Every structure is written in C-alpha cells, then in structure tokens.
Amino acid sequence: MPNNNDNNADVRTGPARPTAVVTGASRGLGRALTTALAAAGWTVVVDGRTLSISLPGVIPVPGDVTDSWHRARLVDTALATGRLDLLVNNAGILGPSPQPPLCDYPLPNLREVFEVNVFAPLALTQLALPALRDHGGAVVNISSDAAVEPYAGWGGYGAAKAAVEQASNVLAVEEPKLRVWWVDPGDLRTQMHAEAFPGEDISDRPLPESVAPVFLKLVDSRPPSGRVRL
Questions:
Q1: For this structure, is 157 an active site residue?
Q2: Which CATH number is 208's domain given?
Q3: Which pTM value belongs to this model?
Q4: 54: Cβ–Cβ under 8 A, 6 or more apart, which residues?
Q5: Which spans are transmembrane here (predicted)?
Q6: Residue 213 belongs to what domain range?
Q7: What is the pLDDT of residue 56?
Q8: Distances (CA, A) of 47 to 171, 218, 227
Q9: What stretches of the chain adopt beta strand conformation (E)?
Q10: For the chain, what is the domain count?
C-alpha cells in the first residue's frame, strides 16, 4: 500500500524543548542516541534493565520494557515534561548465542525474542500514540539487515525484525500525521553484535556513536515515513 504521509512540515507545537523516550539506553546504540539527543537540546526519558546514566536532560527510568507497569511509567514520565515528540524503540535481544539454525531453534527462546523485539515495542507505541499525535511526533523502530536478508542462523532474530518492519510500515499508513521510520543502523561494535559472533574480533565495526549524527539529521529533517539505513 502506498504511504500517504507525504507532508514534510514539522508540525510539533508547544514548549521549545522536545521530549523523547529511548528504550535500551544502558549501552550501545541506545546510549549513543540518548547522548546525541540530549546534546542537541532534547529531554530524554530512557530505560534499561541495568541502567546507569547521568547526563543533563536525561531522565532514567530503570526497568524491563516487557513489563506493562514499566511501559506506563515511561510514558507518564515523558508526559510530566509537558510533551512527547519521539519514541525510539531500541531495546531488543539477540536470542541464543551462537545463533542456532531454525531446525534447532528452542521455541521458548523464540517466544522471548518476539516478546522483547516485537510485542513490547508495539505495546509501548500504543501507549505513546495519543501524546505523539498531539505534537505531530515520530516513532523510530530499530531494525536490522537481518530483517530483509536470509542469513543462515539468523532466522529467529531476523523474523522478529521483519515483523517490526511490517508493523512499522502499516503504522505509517494508519498514522499519516506522524513520522514512522524503521531504521537499520548497520553492523556496529556493540555487545549484541559480539554475542552474535562469539569468539570473533569485531573491532573493525564502527562504534555506535558514528551513526548518531545521521540519526539526528533524520529526526530534524523529518523525511516521509519509511525504511532508513543509517
């Protein structure tokens, strides 16, 4: 279906300092995006299971995004700032390490991968949508090239991210006043990437901070909803 979200105007209104929610900000990409947003003048509400972050403009809300009470607290904390402009669904898990082939994939682990990577971000998005609509906000769902490429051993994680991408695609059509971007950050030097390749040297991958400027440009320029490669 075509995407009808072709209005490129920034329709955010209200207080000058916008507010974002970023999940999975304990480390890696989530922490890098949080740091960049805060430096750019955003108030950033962040979460993580093991969260230790102290930056001006950053409000930590430790917890597990699969917990419904915690999701409600994230949104309530953002609303207490007066607005909510951006939701970044970054929290996720890889699943078993090393990645098993689908013929051997433990189904309980697959359910957990979908719970964290698909159901939790959708549930959080549902809670945030009313406030995002009020300010013409945006949703960023972090995806992966594993969502669109058939890599052996990546069936569980890739299937979950493919579900995220299609859900994002449909949400973009259903919410034409918002921006919805499903973002592939590429291979980065993160703990999750190291877990995907146990025992291998991944020091040649770029650090998560390297994609933060492109992410900020995306948020500031507000192109039409769609898939984005950082």
A1: yes
A2: 3.40.50.720
A3: 0.90
A4: 60
A5: none
A6: 19-221
A7: 92
A8: 23, 22, 24
A9: 19-22, 43-46, 58-60, 86-89, 138-142, 179-184, 226-229
A10: 1
Angle at alpha carbon of residue 78, lines to 81 and 181, rounded to 5°: 125
The structure tokens listed for 49 are: 């299971």
pLDDT at 194: 66
Contact 192, 28 (CB under 8 A): yes
Is residue 227 in a domain? no
Residue 2 lies in a domain: no
Q: Classify residue 75: in a domain, yes or no.
A: yes
Q: What is the DSSP letter of 104?
A: G
Residue 120 has pLDDT above 90, yes or no: yes
Q: Which one-letter amino acid corresponds to residue 69?
A: W
What's the pLDDT tens digit per position in 163-217?
Answer: 999 999 999 999 999 999 999 997 866 667 667 777 777 788 888 899 999 999 9
50: which 2 tokens? 């093991």
Residue 191 inside a domain? The answer is yes
How many contiguous H segments (helices) and E segments (strands) does the chain have? Answer: 7, 7
Nearest to 122 by CA among 165, 60, 156, 155: 165
Given the residues 42, 114, 154, 157, the one annotated as active site: 157
